Amino acid sequence: MASFTPQLATFKAPVIDNEPMRSYAPGSPERKALVEAVAQMEKELPFEVPCVINGKEVKTGKLAKQPMPATHAKHLCTYHEADQATVASAIEGALAAKTEWEAMPWNDRAAIFLKAADLVSGKYRYKLMAATMLGQGKNAWQAEIDAAAELADFFRFGVKYVEELYSQQPVKNAAGSWNRVEYRALEGFVLAVSPFNFTAIGGNLPGTPALVGNVVVWKPSPAAVYSNYIIHQILTEAGLPAGVIQFVPGPAEEVVGQAIAHPSFVSLHFTGSTFIFKKLWKDIAANLDTYKSYPRIVGETGGKNFHLVHPSAEIKNAVNQTVRQKCSALSRLYVASSIWNNGFKEQLLNEVAKLKVGPCTDFTNFIGPVIGRPAFDKITGYIQKAKDAGSEIIAGGSADDSTGYFVQPTVILTKDPKSVTMVEEIFGPVLTVFVYEDADYEKTLELIDTTTTYALTGSIFASDRKALVHATNRLRNAAGNVYYNEKCTGAVVGQQPFGGARGSGTNDKAGSISIFYRFVSARSIKENFVGLEDFSYPSNLA
Ligand SMILES: NC(=O)c1ccc[n+]([C@@H]2O[C@H](COP(=O)([O-])OP(=O)(O)OC[C@H]3O[C@@H](n4cnc5c(N)ncnc54)[C@H](O)[C@@H]3O)[C@@H](O)[C@H]2O)c1
Ligand SMILES: N[C@@H](CCC=O)C(=O)O
């Protein structure tokens, strides 16, 4: 006889708010604490990172390194790569953990993630940030936004959204009956495959499905292993039962290939490049007959984000918003010639010249290194292609890989709105500018909409309301996140649900209630209280 879990109240989660950002200004206590955490980590590295399967460290002895993008001379950690047997036991262990995890009362699952959020924003804040700065090359401000604030927000707002989801119940009950809907976890295991550039996304990709009762095999990015391992340790300390999220770093193709070939694979939660996402989608499709269920495929991928600056725009704001960028960053700028020639160009170049590039351990550096050799070669290759195509490099253009992977913020001015750096994702500090004639606003909207296969983020700068509204309508499908008079990056959980469509992903909106629908499979329950006296219908009566 199965035992019942007493449910003696309907609990309400605490009021949820965004994690307040700390300033890290000189002399602030947080600056001091972060500097100490970075120094401590630099002293202790390189760390050894195991796989974590069923709550136990697994050291396969097959070693790989997570480099430090600012310093070739050192690496942040050496990690044990999962082999075939490890991946197999991760999958079996996750499936074995499933029954208890999905049966755990919601308030207990929620409490684990709320506690994890407090560990992220409290005890482990500076350690996680230090790992993100040293391993992924972010400056202090960006590490705060990502590893501290956004990760804590994902966990806390996730609880709020799941509470809302679970409370969505049928609005009608016929007399003598009660209708209910339960939101079951998916039948199988979820595979989370995360990118290098956001520590918070590392936590969110396994965290979101786990919160609604799924078990997850998580393959972190090789370039974010250490920060992601700390997240796994935090979840464990918060009380996540063994096996619910299996930490499986390792060779991407092998680990992911083995997981998606398994009959109990039920969902991919991916963030990374469009190319890899499409490849995995095709691989999953090829395995379709193997699976018990139709897999849910959820992915956020590349972008070619734009700023459109209308003749009515306020120049200083448009310039500063253009310069202050990060990951969902601006990549193509369409600016009206009257604006460009009346101060925008000059101010843009002045501001870009102030951007200091170098290791983020020096807090005065605004731009850190790019993540590694392939990124460095790709970015510098695009700068070269722009030069070869006759575009003008009006700022930056140089790069230095002697001690780390540093690329100067580069502004390319092109006369060809379909030149390669206006079209393809570069994912580095490179901006291409196309100056349009004021009279060609309409044509420019068409260009923005049709130049790339992506549709992640975009901004419209205008004080003329009609121009703003018109562009919004005209560019309805050109971006999943659109901003007015504000940079096209910096979406905050709970404020701007994030994600793009077209080639940029499935647009399931991380940091919102929408994404949770993808990781549950609803079951409708109808209960009858009165019984049926007679099978026949009144219309059958003679
Ligand atoms: N839209 C968003 O929300 C968002 C957020 C962050 C990053 N990104 C995108 O992510 C990309 C940068 O991240 P990245 O360089 O880590 O991406 P990536 O595609 O190289 O890697 C992402 C993940 O896929 C794995 N992977 C790589 N090759 C694989 C293969 N052949 N088979 C299976 N798995 C494989 C990687 O190990 C990693 O875990 C950019 O394109 C960026 O636009 C998008
Ligand atoms: N919150 C993020 C998500 C970016 C991920 O690439 C943003 O800054 O827009």
Automatic annotation (TrEMBL):
Top-rank taxon, per record: Eukaryota
Annotated InterPro entries: Ald_DH/histidinol_DH, Ald_DH_C, Ald_DH_CS_GLU, Ald_DH_N, Aldehyde_DH_dom, P5CDH/ALDH4A1, Proline_metab_enzyme
GO CC entries: mitochondrial matrix
Gene3D superfamilies named among the record's database cross-references: Aldehyde Dehydrogenase, Chain A, domain 1 (3.40.605.10), Aldehyde Dehydrogenase, Chain A, domain 2 (3.40.309.10)
GO biological process per UniProt: L-proline catabolic process to L-glutamate
GO molecular function terms listed in the Swiss-Prot or TrEMBL record: L-glutamate gamma-semialdehyde dehydrogenase activity
Limits of the Aldehyde dehydrogenase domain: 69-513
Enzyme Commission number(s) from the entry: 1.2.1.88
Keywords: NAD, Oxidoreductase, Proline metabolism
Metabolic or biological pathway: Amino-acid degradation; L-proline degradation into L-glutamate; L-glutamate from L-proline: step 2/2
Positions annotated as active site in the UniProt record: 300
Catalytic activity of the protein: L-glutamate 5-semialdehyde + NAD(+) + H2O = L-glutamate + NADH + 2 H(+)
Entry similarity comment: Belongs to the aldehyde dehydrogenase family.
PANTHER family for the chain: DELTA-1-PYRROLINE-5-CARBOXYLATE DEHYDROGENASE 1, ISOFORM A-RELATED (PTHR42862), DELTA-1-PYRROLINE-5-CARBOXYLATE DEHYDROGENASE 2, ISOFORM A-RELATED (PTHR42862:SF1)
Name assigned to this protein: Multifunctional fusion protein
Taxonomic classification: Eukaryota, Fungi, Dikarya, Basidiomycota, Agaricomycotina
